[in-house]
Amino acid sequence: MSSAEDNAELKAGHPPAVKAGGMRVARARQSSTGESKESGGDGETEYSTTPPKSERHNQKMLISGVVTSGDKDFSPVAVKHYHEKPLPAKEKRHVETPHNIQQPR
Questions:
Q1: What is the pTM of this model?
Q2: What segment(s) does the record annotate as region Disordered (predicted)?
């Protein structure tokens, strides 16, 4: 029953806001206690097993219904050229035009 009483004090999984004079007051963040460090302090770390990654060059991809093989169909130079934006031959100078505002005197 003590857990039901503890849950009654929690709002959305955390304690309600601290209020003073009807306004919320910021409080310092509580750092975690040493409990989490003690549980992981055994030195035994669990590692998930994932399948080894295959090389990108050997992967087959389906593009528009056709099986492609990456670098063989599209060379790295062609892809780089396609993705680069062409640079202008000359830079345009910024010309400041005077702003004459016609106002009555």
A1: 0.25
A2: 1-59, 83-105
Q: Give the span between the Cα atoms of 42 and 9, in whole angstroms.
A: 34
Q: DSSP letter string over 24-91?
A: E---PPPPP-THHHHHTTTS-------PPPPPGGG--EEETTEEE-GGGTS-HHHHHHHHSPPPPSSP
Q: What is the pLDDT of residue 100?
A: 87
Contact status, residue 18 vs residue 24, Cβ threshold 8 Å: yes
Tokens standing for 93?
């100078």
Q: Where is pLDDT greater, at 92 or 29?
A: 92
Rounded distance, CA 105 to CA 97, Å?
23
